[in-house]
Amino acid sequence: MLSPQIETFIKVAESGSFSKTADEMYITPTAVMKQINALESRLGVVLFERTNHGLMLTSAGKSLLNDAVYMSDYAARSIEKARDIYDNENQQAIRIGVSFMTPAKFILDIWSQLQEIMPRLKIELIPFENTPENSVEILRNLGQHIDIVAGLYDENFLTERCCKAAHLYYKKLLFAVPVTHPLSKNNQLSIEDFKGYKVMLVRKDWNKYIDGLREDLIANGVEIEEFHMFNISAFNRAAKENLPIVTIENWQDVHPLLKIIPADWDYKIPFGIFYSPEPSKHVRKFIKVVQSIIK
Predict the structure, then answer these.
(1) Average pLDDT of 30-42?
(2) Which of 48, 157, 288, 293 is surrounded by the fewest CB atoms within 10 Å?
């Protein structure tokens, strides 16, 4: 926003050379000198002393340099401020990927606070089928058609899917028990209650937090039946085969024939927002605001 002559003057003052400035600006040293001469003529002051040892700022030149650098910084901040205002007023919608197992309920829980901080916020829900192929493909390409997805994770999960996660909170690991299963009558479950029974757990190494529960179950004589990932097919299978299946709190309505029962253990799993390693500015702001509210 400063005049080209002032910007050239700052470069010459900082480099101490017409030639170095010319190289930086991809013009000739003569062109640089003409700009400085024109500026001195317009201002009616000598800004540089030309000596055999190079250029030296005069007192007037030093004064102008200090003010010019300040004005340049101020101009840059003014432009950034204007862009921030424009971005806020023309904010794009946050595109949230949703499936049966990855709902956007966390948004509903904090919507009023979100609206206070980001009154122009728009949310667009993008439904997808929660298959193994889709899960990997969507998370590896966040930012293209979907900005964020909420879900369970550990460090290995994020590495494999080439995405990042903004941690929100931990969810307790529980079991959904078919209503026809003997354990469905319990008001609370312990590891010992599963002895002699078979249960369904997501495949080994899918998540280290679930693997911790797995080790405890196996140590107590519990037989493990694996499923590939959390989706409606896994819960249908649990109901059909009359097997308790690992789940998390707040998934009470996952299946009408499965009952989530409280547990006396403290196994938990991280829950957060998945996003691209290089998110857009409005996605970064959204995630920061959500974390500040939930903290």
Answers:
(1) 92
(2) 288
Q: Are 246 and 258 in contact (CB under 8 A)?
A: no
Helices 4-15, 59-89: axis angle to 10 degrees equals 120
CA 143 to chain CA mean position, Å: 10
pLDDT tens-digit series, residues 1-15: 678 899 898 998 898
Give CA–CA dist 119/112, Å, rounded.
10
SS3 164: strand
Cα separation values, 246 from 12, 77, 171, 185, 188, Å: 68, 52, 12, 17, 14
Query: What span, in angstroms and rounded, lies between the C-alpha atoms of 124 and 103?
Result: 13
State the residue for tokens 């590896």.
Answer: 140
Point out which residues pair with 261 in neighbouring strands: 175
Largest CA distance in the chain: 98
